[in-house]
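Shift notes (night). Ran Adenine DNA glycosylase while the centrifuge was going.
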Amino acid sequence: MNFSNLLIKWYLQNKRELPWRNTTNPYPIWLSEIMLQQTRVAQGTPYFLSFTTTFPTVFDLAAASEEQVLKLWQGLGYYSRARNLHKTAQYIANELAGVFPGSYKELLQLKGVGEYTAAAIASFSYNEVVPVVDGNVFRVLSRYFDIETDIALASARKEFAALAFELMPKANPATFNQAIMEFGALQCVPKSPNCGICIFNESCAALQKKKVDQLPVKSKKLKVRNRYFNYLVAADEKENTIIQKRTAKGIWHNLYEFPLIETEKDEDFHFIKERIQKDFFSNNVVASLLEYNEKSIIHKLSHQHLHIKFWKVTLKGVLKNGIDSETLKTFPFPIVIHNFIELN
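Came back to this:
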């Protein structure tokens, strides 16, 4: 079909040179696909290079501790991806002798691997005839064919996958999949695409109908929840501090943080002082309390906005289980806490 031929020709002339593109080895392809979920290529590439340098094989990744993996992942966000990555590496190394499943259906059984990721690995590694459907694909196809299906619906993926399968040259599925995603990333971008230079500007239905900015259709996101975090950065007479591991399910699971007071709203000095005296550092006398940042740092996650304050708590005596500043930097933290530590 002319669509596929034009698309692949465009791709071969315009594609970016990316480190995971010149291989059919499923290990780096899997790594890159997991990293690029919810992450732009420019942000993900340095992490990919760090991981492949530190863990050149799936056995190396499997042998690492979870803390090593989380530390290397620090700053990429959506940390469940890193935990699943590690568990899957252990499964492949220990249960499958390091050999990745060889088909789309088998890949789907891996932890952290959904329909998109399984399709990407299957087509790029094994040239299996299976379409990938990500945000780029939704956007390109919905605009070209003027499809008004709400892509937030679970049924949308099946509809778009069927269309992509029809368009896909069965002898060359990997290149087609790479091409349509690259076209969405570079040319058919979400906002203000340059349709004047587009290879499809004579056949794109959305362009003819002046609907480019209306497609794809996506229903509104979930309501954002506001949370208020007050971190207590203790310093004893040895300048040691104390941290804790977030073991509860939810954001930042298994990452580290300072002792936390979570409140219903932005609270002042007197409220925090009372809570510290009542609930924290029972073995040490609080000598002073200072606010590092008068205005909260707002850290935006997909469905939560965290309003974060750091409080310096100077203590008399020596903290039990206290750690020094060098040891502190070896732990995996959420990026907002990591940045605070680096600056202070």
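The chain is about 45% helix and 10% strand. The two ends are 59 Å apart (CA to CA).
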